Amino acid sequence: MEELIPINVLIGDRTYRIKIEPNDEEVVRKTLKLINDKIIEFKTNFAGKDMQDYVAMVVLWYATQQKAGDSQPLVDNQTAEQLGAIEKLLDRMLAD
Hints:
Mean pLDDT: 84
Oligomer: single chain
């Protein structure tokens, strides 16, 4: 198993520090870009909501997109772990 590397990720208006495997960095960064682009799209289309609403909309959109490709699992194990880590960080940050 490779050593995990720490990276800073930006989701919406918050920065999180997570650890990932080096060979996953490109995929994580591309996913983050997609998420942040969708947040901007939702902010443009649904003015007046707060950031938590936009993040929730993106999570629903992302899960729906994954389900549309029904021939593949909804989320593979590695993605599930990464989403779980992001969810825990968001929960911790929102609780403060």
